[in-house]
Amino acid sequence: MFRVLRGIKNRFGSTSELGLFAMEGEGLVGVEDPSRLLLEERPVDRPGSVVVAAFEGSRPLMVEVQALLVRSYGTPRRVVSGMDPHRVALVLAVMERHLGIKMSEMDAYFKVTGGISLDDPGMDLGVLAAALSSFIGRAIPPQWAVCGEVGLTGEVRRVSHIADRVKEAASLGFTRALVPGTISSVQPGILTVAATRVSEVASRLGMEAEEE
Questions:
Q1: Whole-Å CA distances, 202 to 161, 179, 194, 197, 210
Q2: Which stretch of DSSP H or E encloses residue 156?
Q3: How many domains is the chain partitioned into structurally?
Q4: Whole-angstrom Cα distance, residue 8 to residue 27?
Q5: pLDDT tens per residue, range 1-53
Q6: Are 88 and 169 in contact (CB under 8 A)?
């Protein structure tokens, strides 16, 4: 659906700029608000979906990460689209070690919707949140966006340009953002909720498993 233009070499300036275009009948047309376009068909009441405040090149980009965890009846499958599969495998290993979820007994499917492919450490927390939502069977409330890197010891680590990511989330109407750190804060139009460990993610997002 989209075409991405990245600068590989620029003798006189930065190569961090990113151009996003849509293929229309008259040719390539620049996309003015790609985040809003990418989230147009996002389900708001389905487990396994979360919006990530990602960063690509020099611009924030809101994308939807979807996850589906199902019981495996053989060698567990790992299917990843739009993200680094090695980072996804890392997050799944952290979930098994620090959350006690037997990921080694499940098939796991992940994708970034809209045909976008990203290599951003801030996607880690989206993978974790979407996987937790699918496993628990509870949808993440639609007002939430997330970003953060997941460490091997179960910590949630800071990523670059957090302020820009949160600002982009607020501009699209999100009222809560889960970010790395120890102090939550209120910014114009949005509440940023801090988390330092993966064990805090479910409770911060309000999706603890309900007791029978």
A1: 24, 13, 12, 11, 12
A2: strand 156-157
A3: 1
A4: 23
A5: 677 777 777 777 766 566 778 778 788 888 777 788 788 888 888 999 999 99
A6: no
Domain span at residue 51?
2-204
pTM: predicted TM-score of the whole model, two decimal places: 0.86
Greatest distance between any 2 Cα atoms in the chain: 63
Q: What is the CATH number of the domain that holds 58?
A: 3.30.230.10
Condensed to tens digits (0 to 9), the pLDDT of residues 100-111 reads 999 999 999 999
Q: Is residue 74 part of a domain?
A: yes
Angle, CA of 174, 1 and 13, to the nearest 5°:
80
Q: How far apart are CA 136 and CA 133, in angstroms?
A: 5
For every residue of 14-56, DSSP letters joined together read -S--EEEEEEETTEEEE-S-HHHHHTTT--SS-TTEEEEEEEE
Residue 191 lies in a domain: yes
Q: Is 23 a domain residue? A: yes
